[in-house]
Design brief:
The chain is mostly helical. The chain has helices at residues 51-62, 118-124, 150-159, 168-172, 181-196, 198-204, 208-228, 243-252, 255-262, 270-273, 275-287, 289-292, 297-307, and strands at 42-46, 69-73, 136-139, 144-147. The chain has 2 domains: 3-172, 3-Layer(aba) Sandwich (Glutaredoxin), CATH 3.40.30.10; 178-289, Up-down Bundle (Glutathione S-transferase Yfyf (Class Pi), Chain A, domain 2), CATH 1.20.1050. The chain is 39% helix and 5% strand. The structure holds glutathione. Glutathione binds next to helix 3.
Amino acid sequence: MSQAQKDITSWSDKSGSFKRQVSSFRDVIEPNGKFPPEKGRYHLYVSLACPWAHRALIVRKLKGLEDFFDVSTVHPHMLEKGWHFAKSEENVKPANEHSDDTFPEATKDKLFGYSHLRDIYFKVQPDYSARFTVPIIYDKKTNSIVNNESSEIIRFLNTAFNDEISDENKKSLDLYPKELRKEIDELNEWVYNDVNNGVYKSGFATTQQAYEEAVKPLSKGLQKLEEILSDGREFLIGGRLTEADIRLYTTIVRYDPVYYVHFKCNFGLIRHDFPHLHKWLQRLYWKNPAFKDTTNFEHIKEHYYYSHKHINPFKIVPLGPNVDIEPLKE
Ligand SMILES: N[C@@H](CCC(=O)N[C@@H](CS)C(=O)NCC(=O)O)C(=O)O
């Protein structure tokens, strides 16, 4: 059986620890480069459920790149052949009817009308044998995948189109400013290992030991973040919004509705046990539409609970929490 057809737990090694694959496509969009910035040339494939793809959607909106990239959005059910597209975008059933064919805000593959995301990978590389992940930046001109690694995608979206962006605020917004790079890189590194990927390592562990080895650093990581934010600061680093906030946000916003239950990260709820982290989350969500408008709790919940049959074989999607994000009181 090819890697592509295996269950997600096949990412685990012998010890039962989850090992995330290294992304395959690592080019960049940059002026005068192999992939120069051109309006309408590139397409973004995402899942609204996926925290990695969510990073790209936030930066696309913060930088005002909606007209530069159109987006195809996969259906939240990730089934045997991986992510698939909606069969129809009309007469869409409500999210709670669990249709594999349609879902509010899931789209068709707008470029090729393919049924599955894997078809894009095979079009570009017929012998592709790794996982079929989102996000993808696809180049319509050369029919290739520019990049499928979110940490790199958000870096080049931050700068590549600056000469073409007309809104001055969006053009000058720098999410990775030179003077903060060292601090951002340091924070990103442990946040990635212990928190962003930590929730997956906890949830996909197949031994008790592997689970505990993941969930303990995750618990410590959240405590550390809580301490950093305990002075009431609005952003993690430098008193301004940076990619460090974006990278953490997409994990924390999924924490109470999904990771706490589904991935057994249940030593604390963000809303009850991490008041400063909670306030930081609420501010990003309620004060900046780039965060709120790209956060879709229906896709998020439906995807995780419905797609990981080794964790939740009956695909029951819990109804709670009653409130997705509590209102901000300041
Ligand atoms: N390193 C990648 C990870 C992306 C990733 O793992 N995406 C998940 C969704 S959350 C995916 O598409 N998984 C499909 C699969 O494993 O078959 C990134 O940050 O862009």
